[in-house]
Specification:
This protein is α/β, with parallel strands linked by helices. Helices cover about 35% and strands about 20% of the residues. The chain binds zinc ion (2 copies). Pfam families: M20_dimer, Peptidase_M20.
């Protein structure tokens, strides 16, 4: 059977992103942190399809986190058979003993990985509180023969596990996320990301040990607080990624049965606003008060109206909170947390400014004081096209997993990593229920299933095989680096 070929060329998203190409940097993006400015780019992947038939199987242009219409989702209990094995010549040519060894290594620790995954799932911990996962995973990596650094670079729940062989080899980085969502548990499936990272690292170590002639280093980072805390951004700024030649991780999502995706994600800016007013008796003398809740409600309403005037691929969402609110007291305090998302950092900075204007206007209207603070800025995800192509070929040919392209409306702090060095962050589908995509109780359950675990192991095998090529194939790494350079951020002309 002929295999449709997905060729990913170094370049840009071309037509897909052309409509939002910015020729000129906006001048009113002053509200953002300096580090997030001027880093917009025009995308880094161009997907072409050489197959004349079955093209639709691979291409999906969508603007939804769950990459694909729900009609196509992998629903629990349905479509549980893998597609037939589809050999592809160039991948088959290097599917020698080492590739099999990498796969066998993951199969060998499969039971242990499942155990780790379930333990993390059963002990959900939120932003920077991943103590249980930190201890569990560092102890495991130590037993696997890695040199482990706990509480890495001043972050209590960050960690690093290293295995090195020889001198002067290349360095492959991998990331394991660990955090859950308040009230929802592992509704983003980071327990699966954690074990995928561990699995890739252990399999690479096995491969290096079998090839004593290869010098190389494997660095697995335990990265806290992806859900808003920007743990990777902190680690990046503190030098954790400096020595890596490439870095990889993967992420589960709802999607087409047994599929993976090399889609990009949106840039994201978190904005905190706090209003301060004056409390007063709401019945006896309301005119003596300055209502901070009114300010928040007014800002919320203004931003809700603003939504009509933003682009379809932009996102705005937020919440209101406050201290000691009572119905018979004019509230003197309110807090808001907003998240703005757009395909590029420049677009998100413009959007953030518009939100802040709504917040300031509400302060003026109500007479409240306002304090605005910015959270970490997540950059859009730059999938390295050469790494993505290799991963796509491997999982398509060896495991029959089609790889989709497109974009997600979610965001990741790995986006910032992808601006610093060549990076790969495939998503992969796990079976869930309708309306049970990421950040829902349905997905929490999905992330615990045996099918989700099996999908994770297959993707970990694909990542490990691509990573091993980085360690052993100098020409391949040159292409990876050339693709990264070609997509240098900040290429906007005047
Ligand atoms: Zn999430
Ligand atoms: Zn996530």
């Amino acid at each position: 059977m002929d295999t449709p070929t997905l060729n990913i060329q170094p370049g840009c998203f071309g037509g897909f992103f052309a409509r939002r190409t910015q020729k000129k940097a906006p001048t009113h993006a002053s509200a953002l942190q300096e580090s997030s400015q001027g880093l917009s780019h025009e995308g880094c992947l161009e997907i072409t399809h050489t197959a004349e038939k079955k093209e639709d199987r691979y291409y999906s242009a969508f603007h939804d986190f769950s990459y694909g219409k729900q009609d196509d989702w992998w629903i629990v209990g349905h479509h549980e058979q893998l597609p037939p094995y589809l050999p592809k010549a160039d991948v088959a040519a290097r599917s020698g003993d080492i590739s099999s060894l990498i796969e066998q290594s993951l199969d060998k620790i499969n039971g242990k990985l499942r155990e780790l995954s379930l333990k993390i799932h059963d002990h959900p911990e939120t932003n920077f509180e991943e103590k249980f996962a930190h201890d569990l995973l560092t102890n495991f990596m130590e037993k696997q023969g890695f040199a482990v650094t706990r509480h890495y670079l001043g972050l209590d729940t960050a960690w690093r596990a290293e295995y090195a062989q020889g001198q002067g080899g290349r360095v492959v980085g991998i990331n394991s996320e660990m955090d859950a969502l308040p009230g929802l548990g592992h509704a983003c499936g980071h327990n699966l990301i954690a074990i995928a990272g561990v699995g890739v690292a252990v399999a690479l170590k096995t491969a290096l040990e079998a090839r004593r002639d290869v010098a190389g280093k494997i660095v697995l980072l335990g990265t806290p607080a992806e859900e808003g805390g920007g743990g990777k951004i902190i680690l990046l700024e503190r030098g954790a990624y400096k020595e890596m030649d490439v870095c990889m991780m993967c992420h589960p999502a709802a999607g087409a049965v047994h599929s993976t995706s090399i889609a990009s994600t949106t840039s994201m800016q978190t904005i905190y606003a706090e209003y301060s007013g004056q409390s007063a008796h709401a019945g006896q003398a309301p005119w003596e008060g300055t209502n901070a809740l009114d300010a928040a409600v007014l800002a919320y309403s203004s931003i809700s109206m603003l939504r009509q005037q933003i682009k379809p691929d932009h996102r705005v969402h937020g919440i209101i909170a406050g201290n000691n609110w009572l119905a018979n007291v004019i509230p003197d305090n309110s807090k808001m947390k907003w998240i703005a998302r757009a395909p590029t950092s420049l677009e998100v900075s413009v959007l953030a400014d518009r939100l802040i204007n709504c917040m300031k206007a509400a302060a003026i209207a109500t007479g409240c004081e306002i304090e605005v603070k910015l959270g970490p800025a997540y950059f859009d995800l730059r999938q390295n096209s050469v790494l993505a192509q290799d991963f796509t070929d491997i999982v398509g040919s060896r495991y029959g997993l089609p790889t989709l392209s497109g974009e997600h409306s979610a965001s990741t702090d790995f986006g910032n990593v992808s601006y610093a060095l060549p990076a790969l962050h495939p998503s992969f589908a796990i079976p869930t229920v309708l309306n049970g995509g990421n950040h829902t109780p349905g997905f929490t359950k999905a992330a615990r299933s045996e099918e989700a675990h099996k999908a994770t192991i297959l993707v970990a095998k694909g990542l490990a095989l691509t990573a091993f090529r980085v360690l052993t194939d100098a020409e391949f790494l040159s292409k990876v680096q050339a693709s990264f350079e070609q997509c240098t951020p900040g290429q906007l002309t005047d």
